[in-house]
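Q: I'm building a small set of examples for a reading group on sequence design. Run inverse folding on the following structure and report the sequence directly after it, with nothing in between.
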């Protein structure tokens, strides 16, 4: 019962912060700017004016061949259908900026994805992907890439060529490492790596100087490198359910940190200069091995912070 309560606290706070952070992005077209069509036959009749097409939850088994008619299309939502095969008609949409393919049955992302070179947001989470093509690096305008809940074991080095990328979501895969070229994502603000197989915190991640949110929950991390202190813009760090026994001294230099979830590890104490985390608003540290005296010290040095032990 106690474990359930602790897990519930963590989930509620993670969800709440996601609503207020970079985790929620426009997956819907703006009806105030463009008319949103949700019936393909109606859209075909007005094909030259169609910029937003919402075909989610329509029991589709194939990507419609008629898509090639919509050369002005910028937004396409095919979420929650039964799609598993790629069609050339999709890659003829040269003006497409947002593509949502979440909750389908795709097993791979084809090389042709690079032909959509105006793409800013690609959501293909909750599919059955096992690999990402090297051509992903040609998507120079891509800002949001959602790949969570697939079966990925690796990413290509070329992911680091997506220089505009701000959000990279990779939770619930089978990843144990990221390519070294990940350090090239100078604009990355959100990195979600929870529920994978990471055993160590790669020092290259500490070179992501724009990072504001990092989620590494439910992995197998045993320690954090001293270099984590270089993430000077980090506001949210979620690292619960790992195997941490100690935090590095430089941890106290994360002075932009607003929320820290570090529950269900094996920590006994925090760094001495914890009081330097003056922007910390929420600290969730249930399920560790802190003594009563350490809990009291933390509450004393962080009087404005909501703390949960």
């Amino acid at each position: 019962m106690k474990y359930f309560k602790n897990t519930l606290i963590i989930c509620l706070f993670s969800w709440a912060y996601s609503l207020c952070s970079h985790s929620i992005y426009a997956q819907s077209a703006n009806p105030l700017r463009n008319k949103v069509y949700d019936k393909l036959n109606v859209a075909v009749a007005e094909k030259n004016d169609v910029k937003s097409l919402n075909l989610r939850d329509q029991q589709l088994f194939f990507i419609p061949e008629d898509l090639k008619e919509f050369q002005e299309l910028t937004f396409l939502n095919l979420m929650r259908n039964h799609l598993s095969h790629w069609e050339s008609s999709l890659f003829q949409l040269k003006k497409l900026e947002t593509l949502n393919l979440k909750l389908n049955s795709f097993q791979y992302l084809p090389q042709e994805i690079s032909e959509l070179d105006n793409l800013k947001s690609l959501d293909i989470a909750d599919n059955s992907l096992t690999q990402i093509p090297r051509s992903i690096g040609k998507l120079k305008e891509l800002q949001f890439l959602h790949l969570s809940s697939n079966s990925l074991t690796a990413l290509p080095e070329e992911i680091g060529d997506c220089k505009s990328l701000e959000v990279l979501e990779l939770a619930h895969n089978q990843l144990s490492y990221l390519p070294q070229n990940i350090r090239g994502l100078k604009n990355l603000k959100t990195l979600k790596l929870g529920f994978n197989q990471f055993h160590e915190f790669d020092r290259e991640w500490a070179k992501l100087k724009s990072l504001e949110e990092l989620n590494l929950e439910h992995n197998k991390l045993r320690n954090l490198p001293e270099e984590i202190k270089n993430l000077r813009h980090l506001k949210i760090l979620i690292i619960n359910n790992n195997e941490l026994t100690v935090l590095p001294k430089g941890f106290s230099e994360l002075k932009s940190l607003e929320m820290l979830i570090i529950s269900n590890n094996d920590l006994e104490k925090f760094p001495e200069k914890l009081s330097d985390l003056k922007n910390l608003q929420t600290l969730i540290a249930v399920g560790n091995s802190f003594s009563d005296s350490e809990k009291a010290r933390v509450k004393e040095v962080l009087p404005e912070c909501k703390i949960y032990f």
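The CA atoms of residues 2 and 287 lie 9 Å apart.
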